[in-house]
Amino acid sequence: MMEFAPVGELAEVTAAEQGGSSSGGRILGIDLARALAVFGMFAVHVGPDPESVSRLAGVVLWLAQGRSAALFATLAGLSLVLLAGRVRPVDSRRRVRRVAVRGGILLVLGTLLTMLGTPISVIIPYYGVFFLLALPFLWWRASALAVAALVVAAVGPVVALAPMVIPGEWLDTFAAYDPVNMMSGRGFIDLLLAGAFPAVSWMAYVLAGMALGRMDLASTAARVRLAGAGAGLCLAGYGVSWLVVNVFTGVGAEVAQGSAAAAAAGSEYIVQDQGSVAARLLVALPHSNTFFEIAGNIGVAILVIVAASAAMDALPRLRRLAAPVVAVGAMSLTAYVAHLLVIRFVEAERYLGSPTAVLVAFVLTITVFAAVWSRFFRRGPLEYLLYVASGGRRRAPRHPAPAAVS
Fold it and tell me: Where are the transmembrane segments (predicted)?
């Protein structure tokens, strides 16, 4: 059985329990999508600048910016619904307790990882908050979840501007008594409002993923409709933002000037910190956390999930060939923590010579490790510890024979 979750094993769902081989392809497709997000994360954190490589490679690296993290968050919502019961909740009290415990564990683990002081904005504590905030939505219908995602995407970016108008002394007082902030310097103000992945905006991805989890992703008709919706969201997000920013307003010129000035000063222009209110609400740049970026990113996530699920269903040979990559998606928490530790304690570029070589080494190493590990164990190392800590069986059963994923 291949298990999957955004950060650690979350949904104990087998292909047989979900309705046979078609659903099995869907489950493997979700792990494949998550593996692509892992590789995209590596590209963003250790890979070369998209502008420094050839055209096609540059486009691929550029596509990973912001979208890989958004894909993770969308898959998190999907997995939460599968844990609660795709059609209706199963054993609700135990399931809710396990999700809540995992949220708390991820909040603590993420805080500890943040304390390492890497240059990476650690997403794990945000996931802990996402899990806890998602609890009231676990049994909503797909349509209600989709509407909730739309509302959060529209309202969240405006609410995220609150630190601009709240008196600074109020924020400082809250931060002074925030235990998470005292430990890592990234407390609940960051996790909810002002950080790299603020829950007030990023819950839109989680809710959208939960809506996907309520749908029959094994249905060809559903996949066609979702593919259309994903493409439409991409156009509505990135396309409309481009028109508004570059044709109907002067925001594009403002951002270009700010970026040029920052580059001349040897720094980076971050629109959410340095841009005008209009820029903070209208652009669709990576990690701008605007409605337009969120809509476009959800569209990309839907297209990736649908394409991966369809491919795993339609191409049995691809299941065999992609098994090592699928295994990476099944142990994404292990991959994430491992890559943070390497970034913190190993000067990989010093030994390997270039960001491209570092990226290739990261991808190959985690793929080989995951492929070997998955032949013997159902869960990754950290996924198993998270499973046990949240009330699972205290043993790590062997992974089934390779034929189970072919």
Answer: 68-87, 99-117, 123-140, 147-168, 188-212, 224-245, 294-315, 322-346, 352-373
What pLDDT does residue 17 have?
Answer: 34
- Tally the residues of the chain: 406
Percent of the chain residues past pLDDT 70, beyond the cut: 86
DSSP state of 11: B
**Number of Cβ within a 10 Å radius of residue 233:** 22
Contact between residue 158 and residue 201 where contact means Cβ atoms under 8 Å apart: no
pLDDT digits (tens, 9 = 90+) for 169-228: 777 777 777 777 767 677 788 888 888 899 999 999 999 999 998 888 888 899 999 999
In a domain, 335, yes or no: yes
Q: How many domains does the chain have?
A: 1
* Contact in structure between 105 and 399 (CB atoms under 8 Å): no
Question: Tens digit of pLDDT for each residue in 269-283?
Answer: 787 777 788 888 999
C-alpha distances in Å from residue 374, one per residue of 31, 32, 208, 329, 397? 13, 14, 29, 11, 11
Interatomic CA distance for residues 373 and 368, integer angstroms? 9
CA separation, residue 304 to residues 35, 90, 223, 309 (Å): 11, 28, 11, 8
Of 134, 308, 266, 284, nearest to 206 by C-alpha is 134
Evaluate whether 4 touches 71 at the Cβ level (below 8 Å).
Answer: no
Say if 45 falls within a structural domain.
Answer: yes
Whether residue 12 lies inside any domain: the answer is no
Q: Which of 316, 378, 257, 256 is nearest to 29 (CA)?
A: 316
Q: Evaluate whether 364 touches 39 at the Cβ level (below 8 Å).
A: no
In a domain, 166, yes or no: yes
HSE (side-chain half, CA atoms, 13 Å) at 308: 25
* CA dist., res. 252 & res. 275, Å (int): 11
Range(s) of the domain holding residue 101: 21-405
Instruction: Write the pLDDT tens digit of every residue in 120-150.
Output: 888 899 999 999 999 989 888 899 999 999 9
CB atoms within 10 A of CB 402: 11
Compute the mean pLDDT over every residue in the chain, rounded to the nearest whole number: 82
What distance in Å separates the CA atoms of residue 258 and residue 177, rounded to the nearest whole number?
35
Burial class for 95, CB neighbours closer than 10 Å (0-12, 13-18, 19+) = middle
